[in-house]
Amino acid sequence: MTKPMKIDFVSDVSCPWCIIGLKGLEEALARVGGLVDADIHFQPFELNPNMPREGQRLVEHVAQKYGSTPQQFSERRAMIRDRAAELGFTISLPPEEGRVYNTFDAHRLLHWAGIEGRQRELKVALFEAYFTLCLDPSDRIVLADAAEKAGLEREKAFEVLESGRYADEVRAAERFWHSKGISGVPAVIINERYLISGGQPADAFENAIRRIAAETSDQKASQPA
After folding, report:
1. CB-based burial label for 139 (10 Å; 0-12, 13-18, 19+)
2. Is 173 in contact with 43 (CB distance < 8 Å)?
3. If you write DSSP's letter for every residue of 8-54 in order, what string do you get?
4. pLDDT higher for 42 or 69?
5. pLDDT tens digits, 75-118
6. I need a labelling partner for 85 at 20 to 30 A (CA). Which of 140, 155, 162, 221 fits?
7. Is 132 within 8 Å of 91 (Cβ atoms)?
8. Mean pLDDT of 34-56
9. How far apart are CA 34 and CA 30, in angstroms?
10. Residue 122 in contact with residue 58, Cβ under 8 Å?
11. What is the rounded distance in angstroms from the CA atom of residue 99 to the CA atom of residue 128?
12. What gap in Å lies between CA 132 and CA 208, rounded to an integer?
C-alpha cells in the first residue's frame, strides 16, 4: 500500500551539498517506487542573508566564514564536484574566481513557483544557473531566465521580482525553520517529525524512507478501530 509522505527540503540555491542531497533523495524515492507518494516542499534558508548585492569571492568568503585556506577550499570543492558528478550534476563554478551572492530574491521566486506547481523545476534550474553556468542568482534577468526554463511565465516572474512580493512569506518561513533548530542545510524533514541532515547518499535516504514508512504502518496498525 502506497503511503503519503510529506518532505520539507530546507535548502539554499548556493549550497552545493543541497543539490547533492536533492539528487540523493530523488534517487532514493525512485528506488522505493510505489512504497510512498512523496510530496516535496522546498523551504527557504539563506546561508548568507547579509550578503550584499555584488556578492563576495568564494575563496575570501570561506576564509572569512570558516577559516579555510585556499588549498583546503580547493580540495574540498574538488571532492564536492566529484560527488555531484557521480549523481549526474555538473559543478563548473571555479573555486578561485567564483563568487557567492545574496539569494533572497531566488527564494521569493521559489515561493511563487510553489504556488504555480513548478517549484522543483525552478529549484533545479537555479542550481544549474549558479553551479553549472556560473551565473549570479541575485540577478533578476538570471532569475527570470531560470523561471522560463522551469516552465513558468517570464513576465510574471519579473512582476514577482520587481514588486517585492512574497518577502514576508519567505521571512516567516525562515524564522519558522530557525525556530525548529535548523542551522545548516540541507535539512530534510519527513512527515514533520523525522530529520535527515546533510547531503546524504541515496542509500541513507532510502533506508530512512523505508524505516519511516514501516513505522507509519505499525502506528496505524496499533491504533484502535
Report:
1. middle
2. yes
3. EEEE-TT-HHHHHHHHHHHHHHHHHGGGEEEEEEEEE--S-TT--TT
4. 42
5. 999 999 999 999 999 999 887 789 999 999 999 999 999 999 99
6. 140
7. yes
8. 96
9. 9
10. no
11. 15
12. 30
Q: What is the mean pLDDT of the chain?
A: 94
Q: What is the pLDDT of residues 49-69, one digit of tens each?
A: 999 988 999 999 999 999 989
Cell numbers that stand for 70 in this block: 585556499
Answer whether the bond into residue 186 is a cis peptide, omega within 30°: yes
Tell me which residue has cell 533523495.
25
Break the chain into its structural domains and give their ranges.
Answer: 40-55+101-199
**DSSP code, position 190:** E
pLDDT of residue 216: 73
Give the Cα separation of 186 and 199 in Å (integer): 6
In the sheet with 3-11, reading across from the earlier edge strand, the strands are 36-44, 3-11, 187-190, 194-197
Predicted confidence (pLDDT) at residue 6 exceeds the cutoff of 50 = yes
